[in-house]
Amino acid sequence: MNVPYFIARRYLLSKRKKNFINVISIISMVAVAILSAAIIIVLSIFNGLGDLLHAINNSFDPEIKIEASVGKSFEVNDVLLKKVKSVPGVKLVTEVIEDYAYARYNDATQVVMVKGVSDNFMQQDRIPAESIVEGDLVLKKNGKPRALVGYGVRSTLSIAVDQDFYALQLYYVKSVKSGSFDPSKMYTQKNIQPAGVFSIIQTFDENYVIVPLDFAQQLLNYNNKRTSLEIKVNPGADIRNVEGALQLALGKDFNVLNGEEQHEDLYRVLKLEKLFASVAAILLLVIGSINIYFSLMMLAIDKKRDITILAALGADNRLLRRIFITEGLLIAAIGTGIGLFFGGLILLLQQQFGFVSMGMNSSVVDGYPVKMLFSDFLYVFSIMAVVTLAISSRPAALASRFASVQNL
Question: How far apart are CA 62 and CA 287, in angstroms?
């Protein structure tokens, strides 16, 4: 029989003469339960936000992106394309030109990001049909180039997709030599009719205009240069393996980036925030365990007679310390267990019903995203156990010194 556990359980469940010790123990459990629930909710929110960012970025960004390691563009020829396409796992290679341009529609103006894409862009399935809120998901109609504009751009410029009376005018400033006074040589200008409006997430919706590659070549004067190549891998292929093979084939002149590496700074910030939240969790659990410390101190004083009797029956100081450390662990385990249970229940309800809204218009998610991980539950429980062991050592050592005939 586990004597320390048996005695600690009796102390926890039995009625004591001094009722305020019971009250302190209950307060300790409640405090630990509330903190445990709050911490697991916060950690799950960070997990949910991470998944949401991946979902948002993956809906618009390529699975693998190839960029120049120096400069913003690079020459693309048949040799380079053949080298990329020959890598095992590569399904599609989309040529891309991206640059800022000045947009004008009727009397409204805005600086936009023009993204020119080759004809196989639609096969990448990066703009789902349900994200088209107006018009059609096409980049060419009757052999003529068409544009897909973000919902924010459409709102700023008051674009009417169903009317062909006005065209979307795009201007691109050239790099001109000093001494040139001809305004027409300082920029290029082309018109294009909008075909549809997409709504994915605010960052993209407010900035992007997607056009055919040949249109972007003429507008932005890129000729055979591209800002990136966007790769779609074969179903079932390991993206990391394909990424490594591409980097090996292309060499140090190119950067090959997977989905997370394309937004490395953003994900790094999110990970740092979760780390700081974890550190704050430890501090909160330490504060919450102070009640356990006082509860054990009061219990040790109250049980002087019991301690003396146990010592007379042969209990050594180590056994007496283990009794009170076990008492502290029981209080922490019950409080943490209750907190994690109700925290998990709240998270399940949020996942199912989305009671707490993000407070923003998004076609991706309405309710605040949460994701429960077993590792987070284990983390909270483990931290509480370690903190309780540390906080219980002093009351346990004090209790072991109360074995005296004077306490009988």
Answer: 46
